[in-house]
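> Could you send the DNA alkylation repair protein prediction when you get a chance?

Sure thing. Input:
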Amino acid sequence: MAEPLKHRFGPEIPEKISAMIVEVYPEFTVNDFLEFCLSDYQALELKARALRIAQGFKATLPDSYPEAIKILVHSLGEKLTKTDDFGMSPFVYFPHVLFVSEYGLEHFEESMAAQYELTQRFSAEFSIRAFIEKYPEDTMARLAEWALDPDVHIRRLASEGTRPRLPWAQRLPIFQKDPQPVLKILELLKDDPELFVRRSVANNLNDIGKDNPQVLVDVAERWMVGASAERQWIVRHALRSAVKRAEPKALAILGYQPSENLEVVSVKITPTKVNKGESVTVCFTLKNNGSLQQSVMADFSIHFVKANGKTSPKVFKMKSLQLGPNEQVTLSKKVSLAEMTTRKHYPGVHKVDVILNGVTHPLGQFELMALEAIEESLS
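Output:
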């Protein structure tokens, strides 16, 4: 089991930060700061530890936020010189961005200047969201400027900070409802020379597609016109969740068109009665009865029974392939029915579908046996 990240953000972090501060602010009360930060520190999780340090800044730096943030910015170390393999080192500035979001909302210019510096050493994607919510127009205007900045980390913040569904930060409901302000930023970044930025653009579009699927399709279609290989990669990566959801319009952009010439034969779902903890295998043969080669995205879904007896489909990726005229291929996949942290299994009939280029066709079913039925069969 991997070591919890909080263990790599131990008591040495506030000690390191205090040493950085006292270099530029000699009157800093280091002992008071450390006493405040380290009280019950070991019991706290990673973000709570960072927040405790941010609160320590508030308790021991000057009361004036502009003066306090000026000291913190002057204490910062060297800027990042690469875009990967950071390790945990940049996390030393996690408390600084939390200080900005917690105490700097009434000081827009000072806080934006601080985030400009911080994101070149860590990332201000956490703190910038509070300013988007409080000052949406002013913040997005500033981010549009930053999208053209020479520094790759500044440009990435313009995309990463505006993601509607950033997994490790608060969502941005205003952009879930209307992503148009975000799209103006992404248009500036879609041909960025750095993969670090382009990956963020793709992830942002993927977020947008979860709430606004047609917007994603419209942008993807437009961006694919005359697209470079790099921009094509952005579109494919942005469509990944839509493809997993088997959305036909998204698949069509990638060249997977619905076809009446595809036929599914020789279906086998084994075993038809299965116990929890075992596996079920889905197997079928796919035939192209047409006279032209077909691009095929073949997936299948299992309608898992939930605790309330209703079912919910889960899509399993199988294979992307080219199928020639009158050619056929056999596809197979085994699915474990062991208990997982992300999926519980309940007895009942589970229907299975095959999804070909976004079009769903029934395959069959299997039954997950109840414990009582298993015990009865053994008696």
